[in-house]
């Protein structure tokens, strides 16, 4: 269920695998994506299982309507039930105990925390989002809330690796023109893109020094969902949250998000 978990003083990071849920084929078992064709009640049950496995209240996990862009939403509480979830690819909060979640099935889930400033972020970095700058946008939103890039802890989760992410040569050239570190070649010698390498390079240029990768290729691992491998499939999730006891930088909970 929880494939990787990392804990620092004041903040927590976690990435799921595909097991331990109740979804049927082709979403077996722990599909957390609500827009892939799985039964909504099953997805809710899976989200509750994952949250409870992390010691979180499922009602205090904030999700995104991800669109492969670079927009960031700042949140102080769960989304209001009478409003549509914003179309963004990164979330930032200073609210202790409020978990931010990002869905993936080959894209790079990026989790960020500065426990000293009391601010965390989650970003969805696919190829388009990485090129558009979603990770720098998330770091900038954190900085505006008092984060110092030198203190930020960054964890990237399971994603398709550069050895497997085959693309046309023209697409590789377009991506590399923006982020040279993403230039790659498949294990069989064709053009490829390494989104995770691009994300790491962006973080390093921003001054984020504590960066670690989950070391799992979703296309190669049958324990993880991969859209490129299976097309109709589920979604993994990455979660980041501050300790509930953390008090730095909090404001009265609004139960709404802010774009």
Automatic annotation (TrEMBL):
It catalyses: adenosine + H2O + H(+) = inosine + NH4(+); adenosine + phosphate = alpha-D-ribose 1-phosphate + adenine; S-methyl-5'-thioadenosine + phosphate = 5-(methylsulfanyl)-alpha-D-ribose 1-phosphate + adenine; inosine + phosphate = alpha-D-ribose 1-phosphate + hypoxanthine. Its cofactor is Zn(2+); Cu(2+). InterPro entries: Cu_polyphenol_OxRdtase, Cu_polyphenol_OxRdtase_sf, Cytotoxic_necrot_fac-like_cat. The keyword Oxidoreductase applies. Keywords: Copper, Hydrolase, Metal-binding, Oxidoreductase, Transferase, Zinc. One of its GO terms (molecular function) is hydrolase activity. Signal peptide: none annotated. Gene3D superfamilies: CNF1/YfiH-like putative cysteine hydrolases. The keyword Transferase applies. Purine nucleoside enzyme that catalyzes the phosphorolysis of adenosine and inosine nucleosides, yielding D-ribose 1-phosphate and the respective free bases, adenine and hypoxanthine. Also catalyzes the phosphorolysis of S-methyl-5'-thioadenosine into adenine and S-methyl-5-thio-alpha-D-ribose 1-phosphate. Also has adenosine deaminase activity. NCBIfam families: peptidoglycan editing factor PgeF. Homodimer. Belongs to the purine nucleoside phosphorylase YfiH/LACC1 family. This is Purine nucleoside phosphorylase.
């Amino acid at each position: 269920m929880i494939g990787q978990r990392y804990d620092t003083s004041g903040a927590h990071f976690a990435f799921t695998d595909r097991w331990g849920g109740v979804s049927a084929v082709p979403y077996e078992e722990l599909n957390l994506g609500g827009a892939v064709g799985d039964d909504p009640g099953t997805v809710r049950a899976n989200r509750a299982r994952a949250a409870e496995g992390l010691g979180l209240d499922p009602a205090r996990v904030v999700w995104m309507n991800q669109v492969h862009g670079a927009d960031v939403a700042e949140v102080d509480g769960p989304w209001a039930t009478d409003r549509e979830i914003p179309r963004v690819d990164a979330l930032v909060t200073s609210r202790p105990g409020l978990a931010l979640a990002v869905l993936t099935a080959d894209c790079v889930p990026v989790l960020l925390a500065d426990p000293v400033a009391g601010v965390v972020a989650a970003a969805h970095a696919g190829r388009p989002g990485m090129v558009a700058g979603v990770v720098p946008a998330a770091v900038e939103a954190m900085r505006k809330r008092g984060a110092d890039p030198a203190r930020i802890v960054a964890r990237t989760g399971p994603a398709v690796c550069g050895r497997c992410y085959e693309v046309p040569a023209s697409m590789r050239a377009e991506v590399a023109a923006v982020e040279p570190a993403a230039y790659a070649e498949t294990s069989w010698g064709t053009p490829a893109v390494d989104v995770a390498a691009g994300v790491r390079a962006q973080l390093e240029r921003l001054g984020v020094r504590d960066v670690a990768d989950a070391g799992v290729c979703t296309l190669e691992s049958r324990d993880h969902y991969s859209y490129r491998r299976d097309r109709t499939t589920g979604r993994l999730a990455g979660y980041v949250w501050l300790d509930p006891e953390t008090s730095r930088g909090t404001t009265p909970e609004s139960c709404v998000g802010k774009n």
